[in-house]
Write a structure and sequence with these properties.
alpha/beta, globular
């Protein structure tokens, strides 16, 4: 396929709102049936996912112009989520810069500044989405917790590799410290690639002597970017309705990090040294995710090091259901637990 044809196909898919999160069963295998053990709302959500057309393969890491074109179209396709989130949650939104990094500051209705703040790093395989197109994720937590959420609009890959991307997250936290916040006043959370980015950036903060936020929440984290490792990358490969291994995750991973950096703990936080210190951590995910082994392995590493960590799994739920399946009871429960965990570790409960 020529570059032109690949570009046109990807843009057409993006315009239809299909990227980056739509796949069918892979390798000719039949998808698993919808479980009877989940809520009716979740079953309807899974059924809707199964009807979406498959997304095409991603560009290679060196095809920067194609990535940029597709990113622009994906942003346009997902931008209606921005206005919808404001209307649904009644949040106030302000574009800002903190320490030279663009962010979106999200405050809930009737917000009163209590000196606490939550930093959010969005998902999208490091290559897609923005702080605005993922406003459901930041607005839902702001509304549920009553706290200001600062969503980091970090530079996407392949325009930015992991060294620069984690540096942007660290810079935002440093900027908040410069504004007068203490680390005990800050929590951080992220979903999917943003979950690994949050966890890895906290390791970098610790290692650079900054200290660490009071709490870490990881929604469906991409904790090991190497898709050759982890049981459920294989066992759930055909049954995850949102994540495609070969045509999606592998190109995204290589756009963000060179292969030799896959085990760097700032890239894949599963490989971090947690014997030193690490904040209390909540890991949430669903059992219909190819990333499931990531959650379990990440939990085990933290738990064996003595970190205060909770693994909170949801039957039959797909990737980042916390904010993509907002009308399900499972999402409501997960959001309530996220907000309670953050508030408790910020000393508000």
């Amino acid at each position: 396929m020529t570059v032109s044809r690949a570009r046109n196909g990807l843009i057409a898919a993006a315009m239809a709102g299909l990227l980056p999160f739509a796949v069918h069963a892979q390798n000719g295998e039949a998808a698993a049936p919808i479980p009877s053990t989940i809520s009716q709302e979740a079953a309807l959500y899974l059924e809707a996912l199964s009807q979406r057309p498959a997304s095409p393969p991603m560009p290679s890491a060196d095809q920067v112009e194609i990535w940029e074109a597709v990113q622009a179209q994906v942003t346009a396709a997902f931008f209606p989520n921005y206005d919808a989130a404001i209307a649904r949650f009644g949040v106030a939104v302000e574009e800002q810069q903190i320490n030279g990094v663009p962010v979106v500051s999200v405050t809930p209705p009737n917000w009163t500044d209590n000196g606490k703040v939550v930093v959010y790093t969005h998902g999208g395989g490091y290559t897609f989405m923005t702080a605005k197109t993922t406003l459901n994720a930041s607005a839902s937590v702001a509304a549920e917790s009553g706290l200001r959420v600062v969503s980091v609009d970090y530079t996407l890959a392949p325009q930015s590799k992991w060294e620069a991307t984690t540096a942007e997250v660290v810079a935002v936290v440093q900027g908040l410290l410069d504004e007068g916040y203490a680390m005990d006043d800050i929590a951080i959370y992220g979903d999917s690639a943003g979950g690994a980015l949050a966890a890895g950036s906290v390791l970098r903060m610790r290692d650079e002597g900054m200290g660490m936020p009071a709490a870490v929440v990881l929604w469906s984290p991409w904790s090991d970017i190497d898709t050759a490792k982890g049981d459920t990358y294989q066992t759930l490969k055909a049954h995850d309705p949102l994540l495609k291994i070969d045509g999606m995750l592998v190109p995204m991973a290589l756009a963000y990090a060179d292969k030799e950096d896959f085990t760097n703990p700032y890239v894949s936080p599963i490989y971090g040294d947690y014997s030193i210190e690490y904040p209390p951590t909540l890991i949430q995910g669903g059992t219909r995710e190819a990333f499931l082994s990531n959650f379990v392995r990440h939990y085990q590493v933290l738990d064996q090091a003595g970190v205060d960590v909770t693994l909170d799994l949801y039957e039959g739920m797909p990737h980042v259901f916390q904010y993509t399946a907002l009308d399900t009871p499972e999402s409501k429960i997960a959001l309530e637990k996220t907000a309670a965990f953050i508030r408790a570790n910020l000393g508000l409960e």
